[in-house]
Prior knowledge:
Strand content: 15-25%
Strand order of the largest sheet: 1-2-3
Structural class: alpha+beta
Amino acid sequence: GSGAMTGAGLSYPPVQNGIDLWQMxxxxxxxxxxxxxxxxxxxxxxxxxxxxxxLCLVExxxxxxxxxxxxxxxxxxxxxxTQTFDATTEVLNFFNSHPKN
Length: 101
């Protein structure tokens, strides 16, 4: 979609479109198992896939990298950056447990 900080005339597709694509390509079940990854983060783990598909969402998260200290522009614009979910660790753990064949 578009929001207050989106460039004029631009609109971006929802992240769920990309997840749906990977879910289809990996022949996943149509439903996901939801797990908590912290007090404000829920992860959708798609089941019975040829390769795992996972999406973690931070409630009320802004355009930021979760777990990173807020940047000056994020502070100025009141962009919420969670400190209860470390996206870097989550991504590294996912890739380490799913090596390229």
